[in-house]
User: What shape does this take?
Amino acid sequence: MSSGVSNSSGTRGASGGDIGGREACVIGSGMIDFGELFEQSTDDMAERAYLNAIEDVDSGISPQEIDAAWFGTLDIAGDASSGAGLAHATGLFEIPVTRVENACATGSTAFRSAVEAIEAGSAEVALVLGVEKMRDSAAGLIESAALDQVWRGRGVTMPAFFGMRATRHMHEFDTTEEQVAKVSVKNHANGAKYPHAHYRFECSVEDVVESPTVTYPLNLYDCCPVTDGAAALLVASEELASEYTDDPIHVAGSGLSTDSLLRSEDESLVGFPATTQAASQAYEQASIGPEHVDVAEVHDCFTITELVTYEDLGFCAKGEGGALIDEGVVELDGEKPVNPSGGLLAKGHPIGASGVAQLAEIYEQLRGEAGSVQVDDPEIGLQHNIGIGRNATGSVSCVNVLERR
Amino acid sequence: MYEPPFWRDREANERLAATECDACGYVSFPERREVCKRCGERGEFRDTRLEERGIVQSYVIQNRLPDAFETPLPVAVMDVPQVGANDGGSDGDDAGSDAGEPARVYGLFTETDPEAMAIGMEAAAVFRELFDVEGLPVGSFKFTVPRGENR
Ligand SMILES: [Zn+2]
Assistant: This one.
């Protein structure tokens, strides 16, 4: 995150999380093509993402130069994960490896932890590796409907948790089913162009509203697919970063927060206060406001999630998410493109990998390497996750801001 | 004999026993704790009881659930008023200080036409067996709109 240097405002780095003025930079990223990867194990996917990240470093890097690693996974496949899981997949033994689990913010929290270690001076070059094998288990997440809970989320599946916001948002702000559907249309249009995406087809508003109802008011095309995947990032101190690349991307700010629907605050019926809290921490560290964000990869596990996230991140006022998408602001060629990669809706949502992949995409965008989904010369990119915690009563959000200087 | 979680929560589950934070008025249900999960204060908590009714704050209709549930199943966020309060804080308005706030909970519906669901409507809470643990029933409340009595 940012130090006390640069920028005319003089407020840069005013808040916490900034130890000794050291800054962290991303110096390489790697992804695998997301999809139904029955032929690959968790370790196979993790190893490939790691090797892709190593190969992505402009001036090369040797594994011996990585002195710490963070491993983001929910371990849905039950591969007995721990720090040792990363070491076995990558061969990076004999260094500190920390496994991170933080609901859907797992990958982004792993990244944030690596950044903090670099800022603190306890690591120089760190690997962040996110992986999830979602498809090996036939049961799926529907089975995790909190069957043995009395009041704490019994029967509240993920589409129900997010669908509650859709029903209330439509009631309170006259948001329409068509506006919500447009998120899916946009993200599938982007995903069709994005080589790593799981689903590479386009769809129409009619396709979304006429697809089978999963949990009213959400239909099948309002929901992200079940996808295997892995992604990796290499993060280095600013001083070392220039040895690896001429175009390092700075980590300008990071925020992490939790909240709960059961705190009885009405904002949490139409959005996620945890997102607003995490974003405000990240904006403050980066000395920016939402208006400075040029491109964003946000958590669109469901269409409604992305729509309320526009509001929670301050891209528009509360209740105006529907208007924002109607106006085309968040389209690939709009003023503030959101999810150029196709988002979780098209690219897929391998939970531990999702946040890391979003950061890899922002890294590509800021370096001008995003190919067919490249947006126009972005300088500041934002990455966001919102996850369900504690049997659907809690929420956890992580927001990271990257900057090309 | 109940397994520990159900034994611990039995009074809340079966009798709608709750506690109210004297610092901010937050109603904690079903948990009884020393710190308030809204204001964070380690305050005094007053025992209170919830009424057998609630106001729908938002809802979904679940079409796909494990076999333990009948679908389509309305599931809602409910505001459940304290006994003696004027109303359940419909639409989130802060109730007067005498009334006290409602508790906000998830509510499973039963014997309710999904078409009857609407934000702001009142539903009765009815005691039901939710599930059993090795043959022993765990009972608590579900919500219902009695037939022919929309809203
Ligand atoms: Zn309180």
